[in-house]
Amino acid sequence: MAHGNFTRVTEFILTGVSERPDLQIPLFFVFLVICGLTVTGNLSIITLTSVDSRPQTPMYFFLRHLAVVNLGNSTVIAPKMLINFLVRTRGFLVFTVAEVLMLAVMAYDRHVAICNPLLYRAVVSQRICLLLVSLTYLYGFCTSVVTSSSVFSLTYCSSNVINHFYCDTVPLLTLSCSDTSVPEAAIFISGSTNLVFSIITVVASYFNIVLSILKIHSSDRRKKAFSTCASHMTAVSVFYGTLLFMYLQPQTYHSVGADKMASVFCTLVIPMLNPMIYSLRNNDVKAALKMFIRNTCCSLNHSSFKSL
Predict the structure, then answer these.
(1) Which of 135, 154, 213, 248 has its CA 20 to 30 A from that of 127?
(2) What are the Cα distances from residue 113, in Å, to 12, 99, 124, 129?
(3) Strand partners for 161
(4) Which domains does the chain carry?
(5) Mean pLDDT value across residues 60-83
(6) Does position 90 have pLDDT exceeding 80, yes or no?
(7) Strands 6-7 and 2-3
(8) Looking at beta carbons, which pairs linking 130-133 to residues 24 or more positions away fall under 8 Å?
(9) Pseudo-torsion of CA 237, 242, 244, 247, nearest 10°?
(10) Are 15 and 162 in contact (CB under 8 A)?
C-alpha cells in the first residue's frame, strides 16, 4: 500500500528454520514427527487425567491444563511451519505466557502438598484450582493482546521478510520504520515481569520443599516426597533453561541460527517432551494408561464378539 514516499507493508513473509532448498523435505518430516508426538502425548495426558478416577488431585488438574497449553502452543506454530517447508511463498504469545505461569502454579501446588499435607485439600481446593487456571489463561490473553496491539500499531515500510519460523514480536520490530520504544518497553516489562515472578515462585516453593524434605527422618518418605516433585522439576529446568538461554545471552553472542533453534526447542520440542517426562516418572499416569488401554482393548474385543 503506497503511503507518501514509501510503501506500507501489510503482509509479512517468514523465512522458516532454514532457507536451504535441500533441507526443506527432510525438515518437514522431522517436524511432522515432532508435531505428531506432541499432539498424541498431550491428548493422552488430557484424556487420562480426565477419564481415570485416580489422577484427580489438583496436581493432575494442573498437569491437564499444562498439556492444553503445550498442545495450543505447538498447534498454533507447527501447521504454518510445516506448510513453509513445502511452499516457496511463506506468507503465539498467549500459550507461552500461560505455560510460564502454569509451571509456577504447579510449583505452588507441590509446595503446599509437601510442606502442609494436612491442609492440602483445603488450601488447594477445586475452587482455588479453577481460579488459578482461569487467571493464568486470562493473564496470558491480556498480555498477548496488549503486546500484539502495540507491535502491529506501528508502520512497516521496509522489508516484509521476517527471519524466523513464526511471527515473533522482536524480529518484527526490526522491520518497522516507526519509533519502536513503546512496544519494546512493553515487551521487555511484560517478559521480564512474567519470567521473574514465575522463577521467584518456583525457587521459593522448592526452597521450602527441600527444607521440609530434609526434616523427614524416614529415607523412604524422603524418596517418595522427592519423586512427587521430580517430573515438575525436570520440566521446569528444561523450560526455564531454554528461556534463559534465549533472553539472557549478551547481545554480542546472539546469532539468528541459535535463537531459531532455541525457539524450536521452546515451542515445539518441550511440548513434545512434557508428556513423556510426566508419564515416565509417574506411577499414577502409567497405571491410568495401562487401565485405559486394557479397557479400550476389552471394549473392542466385546464389540467384535457381538458383531460375530
Answers:
(1) 213
(2) 48, 21, 9, 14
(3) 13
(4) 2-246+254-307 (1.20.1070.10)
(5) 80
(6) no
(7) antiparallel
(8) 132/62, 132/105, 133/61, 133/62, 133/65, 133/102, 133/105
(9) -160
(10) yes
Mean per-residue pLDDT, 272-279: 81
The H-assigned helical ranges of 15-57 are 24-51
Element of type H or E holding 109: helix 93-115
Q: What count of residues does the chain have?
A: 308
List the single range of 26-35, 253-262, 266-275 with lowest mean pLDDT.
253-262
- State pLDDT tens for residues 202-232: 999 999 998 888 888 888 888 877 877 888 8
Q: How far apart are the C-alpha atoms of 118 and 84, rounded to whole Å?
A: 53
Determine what percent of the chain is predicted with pLDDT higher than 70: 70
Question: What is the separation of C-alpha 49 from the centre of its chain, rounded to a whole number of angstroms?
Answer: 18
- Please check the confidence at residue 61 and state whether its pLDDT lies above 80: yes
Query: Measuring CA to CA, how many Å separate 229 from each of 98, 197, 223, 225?
Result: 20, 20, 10, 7
Beta bridge partners of 162: 14
The residue written with cell numbers 489422577 in the block is: 55
Report the alpha-carbon distance of residue 7 to residue 159 in Å, rounded.
Answer: 10
Q: Which amino acid does the sequence have at 28? A: F
